[in-house]
Specification:
Elements: H1 13-41, H2 50-67, E1 70-76, E2 79-85, E3 95-102, E4 116-117, E5 122-125, E6 131-140, E7 146-155
Keywords: Membrane, Transmembrane, Transmembrane helix
InterPro entries: FixH
Protein name: FixH protein, putative
């Protein structure tokens, strides 16, 4: 009986080139995909010019701190409650200049809350799901001082 023995295949330079190109091709394509997703979903810059914003930062912060406001925001099943008290623990009803409720990582779920004053707090229904949320506020006090805060919230 004669056995039909096959000669083992050789691993050549062409095979090695194919393995290297395939491996690096996968790595590069995944990196490009992740970079595209990061750039296309990131909300963007906080300030157009950080230098210009820095020129008034200390004065703005001092004016905000002088208000003595204590801000507490809660989120419970889509009910956003914003309670603000002054230094004497009296509820404050500021004028809402700007409020954006959304995710920290993208703007696709951003929503502008329609706040209603209850006598002790501002409330609004917002479309939220489980997870972390940001409330970016710009409020105006009775004396015209602008109060800015970014508050992190979690809906359970």
């Amino acid at each position: 009986m004669t056995a039909n023995l096959q000669k083992p295949r050789e691993f050549t330079g062409k095979h090695m080139l194919a393995v290297m190109l395939g491996g690096f091709g996968i790595i590069i394509s995944v990196n490009l995909g992740m970079a595209y997703l990061a750039i296309s979903t990131f909300p963007g810059v906080e300030a157009r010019s950080t230098y210009v914003a820095s020129q008034t930062f200390e004065a703005n912060r001092t004016a905000q701190d002088a208000l003595g406001w204590d801000v507490v925001a809660t989120l419970d099943d889509g009910l956003l409650t914003l309670a603000i008290q002054d230094a004497d623990s009296i509820p404050v009803q500021p004028k809402v200049q700007k409020a954006i409720f959304g995710r920290a990582t993208h703007t696709g779920e951003d929503h502008t809350p329609d706040f209603t004053w209850t006598g002790t707090a501002l409330i609004a229904m917002v479309p939220s799901r489980d997870g972390y949320w940001n409330l970016r506020l710009e409020l105006e006090s009775a004396d015209g001082t602008i109060f800015r805060r970014r508050i992190q919230l979690r809906d359970r």
